[in-house]
Amino acid sequence: MxxxxxxxxxxxxxxxxxxxxxxxxxxxxxxxxxxxxxxxRFQYFMNGSTDFGYWDVTVTYSKGxxxxxxxxxxxxxxxxxxxxxxxxxxxxxxxxxxxxxxxxSTKFSGKYLNLTWALNRIFGTTFRQPPYPSPYGGSGTFSDxxxxxxxxxxxxxxxxxxxxxxxxxxxxxxxxxxxxPPAYAGASTFYFYINVPTAVFNALGxxxxxxxxxxRSYVDRLVPAGLVYGILTY
Length: 234
Prior knowledge:
Elements: H1 7-14, H2 22-32, H3 37-47, E1 60-61, E2 66-69, E3 72-76, E4 81-82, E5 92-96, H4 102-105, H5 112-122, E6 146-149, E7 192-196, H6 198-202, H7 208-222, E8 229-233
Parallel strand pairs: 7-8
Antiparallel strand pairs: 1-4, 2-3, 3-5, 6-7
C-alpha cells in the first residue's frame, strides 16, 4: 500500500509548538498545498506566469479566472464576467503588478544591454542580441525597443521653463562675464533616448501623457538617479 501523506497534518507537526496558532497553521498549510489559492498566488509572485492570456472583451470569465494586463494580473470575482474591464473592482481584483515574477525582475538593471532586454520583456516586444547598428558596432538590427546614448553639450547659457533643461552658470574670468552669450536653441539635455515603436507606445494609454507615464513607471525603477532620458517613437 502506498502511504498517504497528510500535508496539513505534517505542517502542524513541523511548526514549533509556540507557533501553532490558528493564523500560523492556516498560512503554512496554504503555502504548502499546491492546490490552494494562496500557494498559487505566491508562486505567481515569485516566478511570474504566462499561463493565461490578455483580457478579452469577447470572453466570458468565471470566478477565479486570471487575465493579464500591461499593469498586472487580475482575478475574476464572479461568474458570467463578460465585457467588464479590469478597472471595475466589482468584477476584478488585482493580484499581481506584473506577469514577471520577483525572481526575474530582481535581475533587471539600468545597464545598457540589461535595460534593453528588460523593456522588451515587459512590453512583449522582440529583443535582439548585439552587434547593433552604428555607432554600436555598425551591423545587426536594434531590438524593437532600444536605447541610444548621446553626449550632453552645453556650450552656452540657456534658460528653459525647468531647471533640468537649463544650462548652468559658471564664472568666465577671461571675459569678465558670468556666462557665455545666450543661445536661442539649446543642445539636448538627455543622456539617452528610449526608442519605442509607435504602435506599442500608443497602446499604453488613451493620451500621450498617460503613455509616457506608464513607460516611465517601469524605466524609472531601473535607471540610476540623476540620469535624464527622453522617449522617442518610430
